[in-house]
Design brief:
- The protein is an alpha/beta fold and about 100 residues long.
- It has one domain: Barstar-like (Barnase, Chain D, 2-Layer Sandwich), CATH 3.30.370.
- The chain has 5 helices and 3 strands; from the N terminus they run βαααβααβ.
- Helix 3 packs parallel to helix 5.
Amino acid sequence: MSKECLKQIRLDAEALSEREALAEIMKKELDLPQSFSGNLDALSDFLSEVVEDTVFEAEALYAGSLDPKSYAAKALRVISDAAQENPHLHLYLMA
């Protein structure tokens, strides 16, 4: 009997508001190359190749109050789109 492994990545306001902060979390949690700078197109490409079941958790109240043009809102959209396309990714907005 094998135990399922699930990686959980918590995205708080600080992690999402700064490109550098999100890049550091993604490099650490997803083993992205040190050269990853937080570019959202590159993040989308990396997320499309994730094969380990991974859950991203973000606060719903924070996510709902974002300016749609902000880096945080764009990053959440990239993660959400990737989760819709990659069955190994999930995004949960928590209360």
